[in-house]
TrEMBL record:
Name of protein: Hexosyltransferase
Complex formation: Interacts with B3GNT8; this interaction greatly increases B3GNT2 catalytic activity, independently of B3GNT8 enzymatic activity.
Keywords: Glycoprotein, Glycosyltransferase, Golgi apparatus, Manganese, Membrane, Signal-anchor, Transferase, Transmembrane, Transmembrane helix
UniProt record similarity statement: Belongs to the glycosyltransferase 31 family.
GO molecular function, one term: N-acetyllactosaminide beta-1,3-N-acetylglucosaminyltransferase activity
Origin organism lineage: Eukaryota, Metazoa, Chordata, Craniata, Vertebrata
Entry keyword annotation includes Membrane: yes
Membrane topology summary: Single-pass type II membrane protein
Transmembrane segments: 12-31
Keyword Phosphoprotein: no
EC number: 2.4.1.-
GO terms, biological process: poly-N-acetyllactosamine biosynthetic process; protein O-linked glycosylation
Organism field: Scomber scombrus
Reactions catalysed: a beta-D-galactosyl-(1->4)-N-acetyl-beta-D-glucosaminyl derivative + UDP-N-acetyl-alpha-D-glucosamine = an N-acetyl-beta-D-glucosaminyl-(1->3)-beta-D-galactosyl-(1->4)-N-acetyl-beta-D-glucosaminyl derivative + UDP + H(+)
Pathway: Protein modification; protein glycosylation
Length: 401
């Protein structure tokens, strides 16, 4: 039966349209794929990437590079077999081995030669995050600790570690909760005028079973590295710990107060817990005489909120997430600021708690035992002062009502 003239014309129009769509799809597929059929995704590099305002400061520039690489679109493309044309500003001339000294830093940080030697050493090696472990404790978390006390220490600080073991860092059962303690150590170098104490350290490790040591140069600027190495160790050897109190070896901690606080936490708040003595709206110090000096050639901008590095309390769940976040944040030479940067990457912010006094308390209250019972952490105290204060915490006969 013959097709009516009007319907026949509509049929051929529809067929022509469908053929046009097919041709467009084929051309589009060809442009996006190579001869072998593999995807060929071309990221614009000229006009488009001129919108990217590159920082002149070395750390900021390195972080921009890392943010680009870890952006969802680019990271998915990099994980495939796609061919990518990266923008010119991402050209990387660094050594393939991240633990080789990165001597290009000297040409990219304008005042590099005027910086303190330890700062220069940090910049040369800031890409290296892998260091062999010299002393490990494989069974320190076998009892699934409720609270893991993590203390940043130096090899020669035997007296401080022993005072902590005899007071607030005593491992075992406290207030019906399991507590474990580890001390974090790097390596001491003769170039930093440290004597050879490895024999004594080996004896201490066997005697107490609470030392963790990595083979890197233990300096102020490498405290960030100590943080990242601990987070990696935690994820491997102690992920079952519920909470972590991390502090220096010259702080005094009211462990009973902390356990009492943690036991009363609602479950929803416990997961994202990170509290301490929070510093907000801070920025880098530009005075070269200060310990925390950071030149504009290295970093510009404000710091995110961060808890003072003397000590802070956080959940094991946050610790696991912090390690993952740290892989997307360039190492920074101030460890507590760096932790704040990692928290920001997670979309979290530290919460201020009045029980943390990382800048000490008024001198007139320092001999008042009731003050220490009301606090969680005070910085700083000598080993002798720790041994004096701890009985004030555990002695039930002392009444503060």
């Amino acid at each position: 039966m013959p097709v009516p003239r009007r319907k026949g014309r509509g049929f051929w129009v529809m067929m022509t349209f469908n053929l046009f769509v097919c041709v467009l799809m084929c051309v589009s597929w060809t442009l996006r794929h190579g001869k072998n059929g593999n995807p060929k995704i071309r990221i614009p590099s000229e006009r488009f990437w001129k919108r990217q305002i590159l920082s002149e400061s070395f750390w900021n520039k390195e972080q921009q590079r890392l943010d680009f690489i870890h952006s969802p679109i680019v990271s998915s493309v990099l994980s495939s077999d796609s061919l990518i044309e990266l923008p010119d500003w991402l050209n990387d001339t660094r050594p393939l081995n991240p633990c080789e000294p990165d001597y290009r830093v000297a040409t990219q940080v304008l005042d590099y030669n005027t910086l303190p030697q330890l700062f220069r050493d940090f910049l040369l090696h800031m890409r290296c995050r892998t260091h062999p472990m010299l002393i490990n404790q494989l069974h320190v978390c076998d009892q699934r600790p409720f609270l893991l006390l993590v203390v940043k220490s130096l090899v020669p600080h035997f007296e401080r570690r022993q005072a902590i073991r005899e007071t607030w860092g005593r491992a075992g059962v406290l207030a019906n909760q399991t507590v474990a303690t580890v001390f974090l150590l790097g390596n001491t170098m003769s170039t930093d005028h440290f004597p050879d104490l490895l024999g004594m350290l080996g004896h201490e490790a066997k005697l107490h079973g609470d030392l963790l040591q990595w083979d890197y140069r233990d300096t102020f600027f490498n405290l960030t590295l100590k943080e990242v190495l601990f987070l990696e160790w935690f994820g491997t050897h102690c992920p079952q710990a519920q909470y972590i109190l991390k502090g220096d070896d010259d702080v005094f901690v009211n462990t009973l107060k902390i356990i009492d606080f943690l036991e009363g936490l609602p479950e929803a708040k416990a997961k994202d817990l990170f509290i301490g003595d929070v510093i907000s709206n801070a920025g880098p110090h530009r005075n070269r005489k200060l310990k925390y000096f950071i030149p504009e050639s290295v970093f510009v901008g404000l710091y995110p909120p961060y808890a003072g590095g003397g000590g802070y309390l956080y959940s094991g769940d946050v610790a696991l997430r912090l390690y993952n976040a740290s892989q997307q944040v360039v190492l920074y030479p101030i460890d507590d600021v760096y932790t704040g940067m990692c928290l920001k990457k997670l979309g979290l912010a530290p919460e201020n708690h009045s029980g943390f006094k990382t800048f000490d308390i008024d001198e007139k209250y320092r001999s008042n035992y009731c003050i220490y019972r009301s606090l969680m952490l005070v910085h700083s105290r000598t080993p002798q002062e720790m041994l004096t204060i701890w009985p004030w915490i555990v002695n039930p006969e002392l009444d503060c009502l």
